[in-house]
Amino acid sequence: MDAFAYREALASGEAMVLIPVGSLEQHGPHLPLGTDTLLSTHFAAAAARRLGALVAQPISYGYKSQQKSGGGNHLPGTTSLDGTSLIGMARNLAKSFLNQGVRHVVFVNGHFENYQFLYEGIDLALEELGIKPGAEQSVLLLSYWDFVSQDTLNLVYPDGFPGWEIEHGGVLETSLMLHLEPARVAMDRRVDGPAAVLPRFDRLPVVPERTPATGCLSSAAGSSAAKGELLYEQVVADLSLDLARELDREPARVPA
Amino acid sequence: MDAFAYREALASGEAMVLIPVGSLEQHGPHLPLGTDTLLSTHFAAAAARRLGALVAQPISYGYKSQQKSGGGNHLPGTTSLDGTSLIGMARNLAKSFLNQGVRHVVFVNGHFENYQFLYEGIDLALEELGIKPGAEQSVLLLSYWDFVSQDTLNLVYPDGFPGWEIEHGGVLETSLMLHLEPARVAMDRRVDGPAAVLPRFDRLPVVPERTPATGCLSSAAGSSAAKGELLYEQVVADLSLDLARELDREPARVPA
Amino acid sequence: MDAFAYREALASGEAMVLIPVGSLEQHGPHLPLGTDTLLSTHFAAAAARRLGALVAQPISYGYKSQQKSGGGNHLPGTTSLDGTSLIGMARNLAKSFLNQGVRHVVFVNGHFENYQFLYEGIDLALEELGIKPGAEQSVLLLSYWDFVSQDTLNLVYPDGFPGWEIEHGGVLETSLMLHLEPARVAMDRRVDGPAAVLPRFDRLPVVPERTPATGCLSSAAGSSAAKGELLYEQVVADLSLDLARELDREPARVPA
Amino acid sequence: MDAFAYREALASGEAMVLIPVGSLEQHGPHLPLGTDTLLSTHFAAAAARRLGALVAQPISYGYKSQQKSGGGNHLPGTTSLDGTSLIGMARNLAKSFLNQGVRHVVFVNGHFENYQFLYEGIDLALEELGIKPGAEQSVLLLSYWDFVSQDTLNLVYPDGFPGWEIEHGGVLETSLMLHLEPARVAMDRRVDGPAAVLPRFDRLPVVPERTPATGCLSSAAGSSAAKGELLYEQVVADLSLDLARELDREPARVPA
Amino acid sequence: MDAFAYREALASGEAMVLIPVGSLEQHGPHLPLGTDTLLSTHFAAAAARRLGALVAQPISYGYKSQQKSGGGNHLPGTTSLDGTSLIGMARNLAKSFLNQGVRHVVFVNGHFENYQFLYEGIDLALEELGIKPGAEQSVLLLSYWDFVSQDTLNLVYPDGFPGWEIEHGGVLETSLMLHLEPARVAMDRRVDGPAAVLPRFDRLPVVPERTPATGCLSSAAGSSAAKGELLYEQVVADLSLDLARELDREPARVPA
Amino acid sequence: MDAFAYREALASGEAMVLIPVGSLEQHGPHLPLGTDTLLSTHFAAAAARRLGALVAQPISYGYKSQQKSGGGNHLPGTTSLDGTSLIGMARNLAKSFLNQGVRHVVFVNGHFENYQFLYEGIDLALEELGIKPGAEQSVLLLSYWDFVSQDTLNLVYPDGFPGWEIEHGGVLETSLMLHLEPARVAMDRRVDGPAAVLPRFDRLPVVPERTPATGCLSSAAGSSAAKGELLYEQVVADLSLDLARELDREPARVPA
Fold first, then answer.
1. How many domains does chain B have?
2. pTM score over 0.90
3. What confidence tier does E256 reach under pLDDT thresholds 50, 70, 90?
4. How far apart are CA E208 and CA D134, in angstroms?
5. Which chains touch C (3 or more CB pairs under 8 A)?
6. Are F200 and C117 a contacting pair at CB < 8 A?
7. Can you name the residues that pair with C55 across neighbouring β-strands?
8. Any chain D CB within 8 A of the CB of A28?
9. Is C50 a domain residue?
10. Is C205 on the interface with F (CB under 8 A)?
11. SS3 letters for D73-119?
């Protein structure tokens, strides 16, 4: 998109920009390092099509992988930002888009560990800009998995959902990738194994042997493109609907 | 405790220090502003008694209250730190105790929003000190509610658990306070109301009317000191046992 | 105090909050690590009673102990913050209380090394809030010992006052603790010795042998609860009077 | 690329990672906002193919556009990072890749204003890691245009080269885009005009009327895919050769 | 200058302050470490005389010397600031002078590596003060060598100008010093040698042997006070004229 | 001094560098803005001559002037750094000189408000360099007035010393300037007045009318070059002697 087309989009005063946020993080032998960025970008793009919104360049490096949710930051292939840098990214992008006249900025997160640092960056941006309750402009922050419904979970995990914390390289991410980015999934390289059993605390430095050798916290066995499609369609529908209601936008009748 | 007694405790090379982390945050009309600090201090003290550990001064100001988990930072009575300051607190305390020769430092968190910033502070401290996997020293981080068992939840919430996110000023915190700090609970000031229904995203600036007027996200109706005792005893037992196993310590047979 | 009682206190537009600031610092074998926090909290509480003000949670970790005023930061038991973290604490608390509508915030300092970092935090907060000379709101910063009168010094130190810089674990702090927190003072553990003779410069890294083995910079011999009472009553009276005059408040006729 | 394939690449001890660095910046009506990121990614990818190196996710947001080199940061469509955030990005990525065992990291810059902040981030990373002259590992930093030869300039600008500072949206960038990303160039939207005449100083706040309405500092008239191919082939050849010589690598005989 | 004379200068509302910026950096055996500060101070003072402006204390420590423009930061005698500190210096000084009512602040730079960090400091200052395009106040940033004309270059370098990047301790700086600070130049200590041939990339850690043993990147042979006078007079004239035109000031008819 | 002479000084392994630290701060109508920098530079230079040490470029901007010690930062002519920038300056300079092989670095302070921020910068530098008690290298920090003896005070202030806090533009600074920089003192512009009576707390924002109109906190009446000489000679002698003893250096028999 060129700057002049962008300015036309801004001219209405109703422009909405979705920023995908991911990571560069090991996701086992069958998924690419950029899985989180790819998935958040797909969700952001689909919602943007339905809402007539724009999609910005993704934030493609995320906060340090934690052992309890991503296997740990010590694993080669995982390349991360510290908290201050990610806060700075979110603060700068929120400020910059709002200063240009974007009405609503939505961060679409795909990497668990990012959330609080994005929140802090957004909060600092609004404080600096003096945007307070009741203002026209707003920033939203969400993680796409918070829009997966219980019905979908039941279908995707017929034997019971193992919990979000160990969904790293497991059925959800693998199925979504099989549906959305099949050429980037190497199911033949997939190594099966039991789900990680992680303690109720974080320990640092990590105890490396607690992370399965695959780097995945739960098995991808049972993943399928069909499950991925189901997940994707349901999340896109709910996420778009929620944003449309929240921000008084007419969702376009565009198929996802 | 004086410095010379402290040095004796350090001399074994096995000293363990628990640091309670709370907040100064509105908790409705019936609970004090310092609820999170009081509860984390009680849990830390009980575990310390069982494990022969020390308890440090609490971190009594926490990260900004978020609307989805604490009602929001706009409410008077809520006095918070930004992310950088809380990261700095955790980094400094972890570094300082480890430098003095403490073997294990445990942050016992009682305010949901703190977690990731504490994690970052700890990680930075270890990086600066060059403490890597396999080292003698370690830092643990936990939130006390992650040790509540399903059985306990079933007993405390006979009608079903409404979810951790809206447990702010609700049955869990109120019951624990009735058991541990009854003089600081004003059940006669309690105002009942339906649980908050919050969206699946964070929106900033907040929409103030989404937080119930009480500032509590779920009702405290049904709270009791007995439930508080049940919660407290079970969590202290599990938390102490987990720490003892993890850190090769003999749990003392001290009643909590 | 709960949030609703707090809001009533704010409603007058005249609310005043005192924040005690201390440290976790070795104070010899006879005084607890938290001496500075305990003393500043007592002074803040007494002044608050007289002035109808509120007392906030103390800042219980302070800036690094310096050899010339506190024995040095290398001594076990001394657990400190760096300058940036303490500036951040003061900045956040000043901003947060002023934003809630508190009219006057008063930092009551009990640890020598804190002062300039608290000052900087306050100054940054006011700059961010745009509060300039002539504004309704203000922040005050003081160290309690600056209110000890010459008459009191003459009585407490009949052989001559050795100077503020080496008053660390000496007669003043010990006497105050004997009066205010007798159960936390172990006079039987007190070790006597000559006052430290420290150079007119700071040297880093410190030369450890310059700090007496007790960690105290002057002797506590001659301390008494009676001297502590004298110090306490005189300081509370003067400090309250100064604040009352400065901030146009009627000092209550409450005995300290 | 998945984490296991990546680890195989690391195993030789000779892995080399190229990180493209761009911006999201207005480039007139005929070029996309992501021009700098696209071009640096193409150059990095081509060099990587020749050198058997890896290409990382690009840094797709850059330092604030300056009026003298990019038209200015006030123009809608330009979304930028402050210096601290970009320093943080470079520092984190350099540290992370070196810690994983990458031997040489090369930042391939495509946005003039980024350079010094990338340099600082790299320098801080090496200081933290203790990597000093003579070490095995290194980090290189370059801007692709520094590899354009005088011969190429003579061919691309038969009427004389106007200078690098005003090459923003001009013949060089447009020709490269016509060669590498023709579908993203809208030559029909191109607006012609004289080159900007900018003072020998930076002035802030900017004087907006000094930037041509197009946002381009020099005219794109005379751009062609053929010139782009010439530029691209020459730069890739020289850049690859320089890196190969510097880092003792055998350049593969892969056509760019 | 005393504060009351300064306030008179401010009273017109038209005060202009020039801040010289240099470095403490090795400049070979014949030039002093403070060469950059001395030269920028001379240029600032001369322009100030012509424009009726004030000259502030110089910033006498600069950003790290880079091998490609100053020989490298590893050389003894080079004492530098990191990026954050220099940004902070520029931000504080710009804010402070503008807050006092200075209308125009001009940073006159004499050390290549400083430029972008000064720019960032200025930009942050204006953002904090809310000074936007169209405002009365402004800050300018320039490097004195950008005002050397082509005619002057032809005269100073009859055999062709070797390029700004290797002008470190070479003919330009040496000639200027011979004209302006002859007592501080030790031409008898000058060591001759070929110009440095540096790569088109920065490499860190540096390869020390790439910097000539003299620390100068090009030869000072051919330097003379006469060339220095020519350079100085031409730059002062052009720089003063540009500033006068830009800021609507009548240049005084004072000989430089 | 050129870089090669400097390296010879380093070669002994015993090099000592003194860094004067001042401010740009109003000092009434009779003293220049740079008074603190001038005085600290004179003291550093005199001690350096006696000790065979080097003097570095001064830090000529200091921390914000506080009303109780310098009249306040709101007064035009006072141009200051925030705490973070001054900490950064001290940290960078200490690190840089120690890294070059300087054995002892001494900061000679001439502006009251600087002290704690310099201390913090030095402490951080040593932590980063891993310099611990017992190391060969050290950094010293002092304020010159701490070396004024009681005898000298009695002679300079025959009517009694009013206290260090209000010695700003008073007899001590004025007498020193009359002795050391007579051409920069305008005794005819001196305005007399009573000493400032300042409260025992700091209040922010300041109450401007508490600072006398002169900007001086005590009267300069009674200042003389003779008193300045007395002060200067006594301080230089004591300061040099203390440093010589502390750092095992033979003080040269050079008259100051």
1. 1
2. yes
3. very low
4. 9
5. B, F
6. no
7. C18
8. yes
9. yes
10. yes
11. CCCCCCECECHHHHHHHHHHHHHHHHHHCCCEEEEEECCHHHHHHHH
